[in-house]
Design a protein that fits this description.
β5 and β6 form a beta hairpin. This protein is α/β, with parallel strands linked by helices. It has a single domain, classed as Metallo-dependent phosphatases (Purple Acid Phosphatase, chain A, domain 2), CATH 3.60.21. It is built from 6 helices and 13 strands. The protein starts with a strand and ends in an 8-residue tail after the last strand. Helix content is 23%, strand content 24%. The longest helix has 18 residues.
Length: 268
Amino acid sequence: MNILFLGDIVGNSGCDAVKKFLPYIIKTRKISFVVANGENAAKEGVGITENIVDELLSCGVDVITTGNHVWDQKEILDYIKKQNRLLRPSNLSGDVPGNGFGIYDSIGGFKVAVLNLMGNVFMKKSDDVFIKSKNFLDENKLKDKYDFLIVDFHGEITSEKMAIGHLFDGNATFVVGTHTHVPTNDGRLLNNGTAYLTDAGMCGDYNSVIGMNTENSINRFFKRDSVKHFPAEGEASLCGAVIEANPKNGLALNITQFIFGGQLQRDN
């Protein structure tokens, strides 16, 4: 069972690359299930729209996760109520629409669960992610209601992501960090069989500042002539990871960092 996770899709460049290349990747890599973080997929580089969700799902993405920008395109507030393949962080505070967890059918008849979490440090105010995770693990067991569990942890700092990874070790197939848009090189199997990667990076133009126009970003740091951040529009690299998972116990057999196309093309 091969599972593909794609990091934050950024703007038109990232969306175009996913739509263009994902069907080919699914075929050549024998992918059975695809999860992608889409919280920056709108043309403005923040949020996601109904049309983009539909396009990503139609080209092979099975589940779309999000993060702190989930509500930046207001139409999603209504749409997420009826689209169960679009998730928002499960520990968002207050009475918010949508779900942060779902169980989905995959090729081969397996049940794949996806849990969307958001960190507490330097992020939008949300409920304690460690308490939320502990409660989830108390109520849900691998190979009980589902065969595999993918956890997208949308957070700012590496230590918080690593701690969540170890908390889920042995009870999740893959714990992956999103949000910083920079792919880390620490993909590994933890002691109890859970695959872990601190950050999947992004699907966007890497000739940029985390996906945003370089010149404008520099000007903003200088506090001189600049406008609101907007995405770079060069050729995108698709970044993430491929997880080979064991159907017998739901744990990972192997993790391979995935970088396809654009300036970061890497042969794995």
